[in-house]
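Archive entry. Fields below.
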Amino acid sequence: MVSDFAAVAVFLIVGVGFVLFTLLLSKIFRPSDPNPIKQSTYECGEEPFGPSWIQFNVRFYIFALMFVIFDVEAIFLFPWAIAYQSLGLFAFVEMLIFISILLFGLAYAWKKGLLKWY
Amino acid sequence: MTVGLPHFLALSAIVFCIGVYGMLTRRNAVGVLMSIELMFNAVNITLVAFAHYITPQDVTGQVVAVFTIAVAAAEATVALAIVLLIYQHHKGIDVDNVNIMKW
Amino acid sequence: MDTFSLAFFVLAFLIVASAIFVVSSKNIFHSAIFLILALSGVAGLFVMLHAYFLAAAQVLIYVGAISVLMIFAVMLTSRIADKEIRHTNEQVGIGLLISGGLLAVILYSLYNTPFTISDQPIAEGAGMTLGRLLLTKFVLPFEVVSVLLLAALIGAIIIARRDTKTGDSVPPRPIPLPKSLQQAKGESES
Amino acid sequence: MLELGGIVEAVGEMISSVMGSLGFGSGMITLMQLLTAALAVISFAAVLTLFLVWMERKVSARFQMRVGPYRVGWQGTIQTVADAVKLLQKEDITPVNVDRAIYFWAPVVTFVAAVAVYVTMPFGEGLIVRDLNIGILYIIAITTFTVIGLLMAGWSSNNKYSLLGGFRSAAQVVSYEVPLAIAILGVVMLTETLSMLEIVHQQSKFYQWHVWRQPLGFIVFWIAGTAEVNRTPFDLPEADSELVAGFVTEYSGMKFAMFFLAEFVNMFTLSAVATTLYFGGWNGPLLPSWAWFMIKAMAGVFVLMWFRWTYPRLRVDQLMGFAWKFLLPLAFLNLILTGLGIHFF
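PREDICTED_STRUCTURE:
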């Protein structure tokens, strides 16, 4: 119930507190001797060249958007799954329609060659 | 003073108006989309608050909120795809400079 | 002040403060992070309103999916050094006016509306009820959502895929073998 | 006797009686109990990590016919403690070009997301902090924050390796999350509940373990889970030989340690969730319940380590293709089979 979720809040706060405490603790023990070379961006010992920002492949985005769609689908299936046994065969057919419509999308992406990395 | 329905509605109104402000003033297209997500969320707060306080036995408000979230997700995927496309063409996503729809 | 009110005000402060950062931060990546904070706060509100399943859905879809998509879009379209760019357009004044006016109107009407708060007990175990409702009363929207998602998927794929033609990601050509090896290959085949 | 549930309850009672006599309200008492529980669980996670690191090194060594850590303590048991102390003294370098605020908060988010899962983890009889009614869904939801943490780390470091590593990890974690969630749906259909405690109770007998009725679901869950926690063969994000260290490239000192900690905690979480969902949780004869839970979970962790020295790393295109073309259809197949099975058997 609602009060159960107070535990979540406490956990989040204690977790953050734990990390901050450890970082503080290490601040006491650790040396601090920064110099420009040490603080430069690491690039396998070479001088960093160019901006770190690279034009990334839009392909990453395509996987992310497919994830969004299927994640929403999974969320819709959760309440369905809980109530499944009490709903009977009708629910099964409903879900089958729901899934097959989305699987069509997956098949489309597959056919268009979007699931390939190249 | 105990917190009740008006508090939730007022909070929702504030978040919604912040979203409106962001949508009107942001130059970055992704920023505009973020403001829209804020507005979606404000609406969801209202839906759930009404469902909780006015019809506690009926979870219809929550069902509608789930649909809102689904619609928001669909909207975000398409809108961000458009943003990326605009970026490819204009090398920037400043909404003030995107006027291809004018002609 | 009871715990419920305290939790509400903490969350409200969190949400409003991060929402303001979302619309005003100069760095779009920071905006995205604050958006995540605001959305998580809204999930907290849902928990307070006994909408547990919805809170989980909020975190999973908004924080886990939509925000990740947003961050991807940010990473694909802006640089970390972009901080100095002007981030608002000339409409700041008008924007403030419109949103402030809207807020005033809403709050005014809110103040003058009597709500009939029900005193019935709250239905718990929403997951089960939600599932039953989805498949009985809301069965049509449930199926329509899948069509909507399909449309969004195909639409977004078609739009985002354009880039392959502009040469951003040409399929890699097979690397030609060095002359000596080509000869060797030819010999072995013949 | 050896059951820890009683001890935990006694501690809770003690807190409540001591604070009650000092005149605190029930809210404060609950808060104090929760604080104690949270501290206990987080300390457990830290100690567990020390153990798991030692175990990883030992297991790896045995697979390669080496001895592994040996000098510090019996069989090198305190080696990781020494390492932790060393890490505590290490200089914490913040490169000049980083986005400082986000660079600082990224490890915090990652670590907190990893630990917050344990709110509703049934470690044994009576050893569950709170039995949330959305149990398993809560676990899936809270772990999504890990993605945010690593994207924050990747972006803020302002380093090519970090950015690419962050991108890759996010794409990977996100892709495997879908089959994972849909595999879990099979269990939810059988149990009609999301509560972790209830799921454990429903598998009190050996033959009731869900793995017997959900073999396909378990396989999908395990493979997707392995990818979620970035273990070999799915360890591309931090493939040291290609990407230096992925999104943690620029991190050093305790901030690095936090990522490390989160990674091992996540590994244990995967195994613990598998135990709860598929292997009857803490149920078992003779031994106390927490011991059974730990035995099963550790066996899972051992399998993960075994994977590491058995399978070669996947290529990035194989990785994505595997999730979408193979695992996702398989997860749906499992869902449909489960649906049919419930109705016809």
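CURATOR_NOTE: The two ends of chain C are 90 Å apart (CA to CA).
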